[in-house]
């Protein structure tokens, strides 16, 4: 898996959210797959105040580390007008913090498989390397224009110190 280090400015997202954990997601009560359904049914990407082209899967509000609960926000970047828009008030707002990130690029394949495989490789990577995760705002980045769930490549950004 390809890995590179970059600095990113803060990004304001608007989307749908759920609180979960890796333990919950490994079982039948997982919330993330249903959250994707809610995101696409919401019509958010067609709203004014949203920048088109990319979908973010933000992992934020970590209780601790990979073993604790976190909040997942599936959303899009807000425009300046969208940040305070009344028609978007029922959606969750969240910020991707301005930090240094390690960017992991998945293999190409079915999205559910490549994302799970990439996260497993990321967990192993951090067990064996000197970089330290900050647990302040990790995210997956999807190209919504050319997204093919059966043949996807996903970038996963992990906040590091």
Summarize the helix and strand pattern as letters. Answer: EEHHEEHEEHEE
Please, what is the average pLDDT? 94
Number of helical segments with 4 or more residues: 4
Q: How many strand segments?
A: 8
Instruction: Give the overall shape.
Output: globular
Q: Into which percentage range does the β-strand content fall? A: 35-45%
Structural class: alpha+beta
Distance between the termini: 21 Å
Main sheet summary: 8 strands, antiparallel
Question: What strand order characterises the main sheet?
Answer: 1-6-8-7-3-4-2-5
- What helical percentage do the residues reach? 10-25%
Unreliable residue stretches: none
Q: Which value, in Å, is the CA radius of gyration?
A: 15 Å
Concise structural overview:
With 161 residues, this protein is an alpha+beta fold. The chain contains 4 helices and 8 strands, in the order ββααββαββαββ.
Overview of the molecule:
There is one protein chain. This protein is an alpha+beta fold and 161 residues long. The chain is built from four helices and eight strands, in the order ββααββαββαββ. It has helices spanning 22-25, 32-42, 80-83, 111-127; strands spanning 2-8, 11-21, 54-60, 69-77, 92-96, 99-105, 138-143, 155-160. It has an eight-stranded antiparallel beta sheet with strand order 1-6-8-7-3-4-2-5. Strand 3 and strand 4 form a beta hairpin. The model has no long low-confidence stretch (mean pLDDT 94).
Q: Would you spell out the secondary-structure blueprint of this structure?
A:
Elements: E1 2-8, E2 11-21, H1 22-25, H2 32-42, E3 54-60, E4 69-77, H3 80-83, E5 92-96, E6 99-105, H4 111-127, E7 138-143, E8 155-160
Antiparallel strand pairs: 1-6, 2-4, 2-5, 3-4, 3-7, 6-8, 7-8
